[in-house]
Design a protein that fits this description.
single chain; about 450 residues; Urease, subunit C, domain 1; 14 helices
């Protein structure tokens, strides 16, 4: 029997982009190419219209809200291995970001290639069940624990790619450059050796090898870890290479006050100003500042038309502080979301905390609202199109003609949503819910959950 060339999905409600406007519609029919998964058309049908064109297979998701697949812009998948292990006082007391980091290093240095694969696969599989269809993996486990290169210098990167392939998740591999333990240091600490390539030449050679593997399911970006881990002259070379090849650039920025203090002592500038002076903000792809918590007025101006990736559950867990989301939006930055340490994998929770933290800061409600006074569409955008833009994949994060059918279905009969007016379901999910009601997930037109 010949397989139909096109498939179609319909549901009670969907958040789709029609004529460039994202909107909630009733009973859409989304047709996509069976082979590529690309959306061919989006049409609206009445409740009673069940006619299906010849040669087309229709999936009716029933009483569901269909949303674009979410895009996780910042993940350290291997850190899932320490879930639950750093939440009591122990040998690294007093507990702080810096003592947590020491505990994380200990676990990182126990993982061989198969261990990296196993932890990453488990992490990515959990992401998929939570409606994440693309992840930006900020990957810095590169070599053996003592710094020795594997026979294939990209051995551990290939394990991350393998994990994403096995799960069916889109991957933007954000290859991290790491060179030193801190400001003005000559090199890494012993526990950081496996993060380091030894030179920008060696690092860029690895990046170029990985770029050759690019596909609709895999892309690559450049990720100088932070100003404390990368010298200014190295930053400039990384930026030039990324800009020349149109690669996204991601970096940890101003996560901790001590980071800012050390940067001022070394450079006489804020971390973001150092990145800007190195050319990181001058490329064809928007620069993504991960965290960007402890920032100045001049920093806010620097990131106009750039990206900020907030990771509220990790930032709260580590006592980092609160991302000034309203201020970033006022200054034109696009906000994306990340699961970061993966102690919690739920971009719905990340989105809700973005708004709730701002409410606590302002002691007010409905802080991150759009022109119509609604918050939920802003939070949904952070979890979808914001992440897609950060990863240099603007076709993702939306249900629109020409985009791939990457989608998730919210079960409107789930106990947390039962009885909620369908027109309010988006608000109920993003302001009073979690990813728990997600019942189906599609990537490239294929059902993965």
């Amino acid at each position: 029997m010949t397989q139909p060339a096109a498939l179609a999905v319909t549901a009670k409600l969907a958040w789709v982009t029609l004529d460039g406007v994202a909107q909630l519609v009733s009973r859409p029919r989304i047709r996509f190419d069976r082979e590529s998964g690309q959306i061919l058309s989006i049409s609206l049908a009445s409740e009673g219209d069940s006619a299906t064109p010849e040669g087309e297979l229709l999936h009716d998701l029933g009483h569901a809200l269909l949303l674009p697949g979410m895009v996780n812009a910042h993940s350290h998948a291997f850190q899932r291995a320490i879930r639950g292990a750093t939440h009591t006082l122990g040998p690294h007391s007093p507990s702080s970001f810096w003592s947590w980091r020491s505990a994380m290093y200990e676990v990182a240095n126990t993982l061989d290639p198969e261990g990296v694969y196993a932890q990453t696969r488990a992490c990515f599989a959990e992401m998929l069940t939570r409606g994440i269809t693309c992840v930006g993996e900020f990957h810095y486990l590169h070599h053996a624990p003592d710094g020795t290169r594997y026979a294939d210098p990209n051995e551990l990167s290939r394990q991350v790619i393998r994990a994403a392939d096995d799960v069916g998740l889109r991957l933007c591999l954000l290859e991290v450059y790491y060179a030193r333990s801190g400001a003005q240091a000559k090199g890494p600490l012993p526990e950081q050796r496996r993060f380091c390539d030894g030179s920008t030449d060696a690092y860029l050679a690895r990046v170029d090898e990985l770029r050759a593997l690019a596909s609709p399911m895999l892309s690559v970006g450049v990720a100088p870890h932070s100003v404390r881990a990368v010298a200014a002259d190295e930053l400039a070379r990384l930026a030039a290479h990324a800009n020349a090849h149109g690669l996204p650039i991601h970096a940890h920025v101003s996560e901790q006050p001590l980071e800012n203090q050390q940067c001022q002592a070394e450079h006489g500038r804020t971390p973001l100003q150092v990145f800007a002076d190195a050319g990181c903000l001058a490329g064809p792809r928007a620069f993504t500042a991960v965290h960007a918590i402890h920032v100045t007025a001049s920093d806010l101006e620097l990131l106009r038309n750039q990206q900020v990736c907030a990771c509220p559950t990790t930032e709260a867990d580590l006592g980092d502080g609160i991302v000034p989301a309203a201020a970033w939006r006022e200054h034109g930055a696009t906000i994306s979301l990340g699961s970061d340490s993966n102690a919690v994998i739920d971009l719905v929770q990340e989105a809700r905390l973005l708004e709730m933290h701002e409410r606590l800061r302002q002691q007010a409600r409905l802080c991150l609202r759009d022109d119509q006074g609604r918050v939920a569409p802003v939070l949904l955008a952070a979890a979808t199109t914001g992440g897609a833009q950060a990863l240099g994949r603007p076709e993702l994060g939306r249900l629109a003609v020409g985009s791939p059918f990457d989608a998730l279905a919210i079960d409107l009969d789930h106990p947390t949503l039962r009885g909620v007016d369908g027109q309010l379901a988006l608000d109920a999910v993003f302001l009073a819910g979690t990813a728990e009601p997600i019942s189906q997930v599609w990537v490239a037109g294929r059902r993965r959950r």
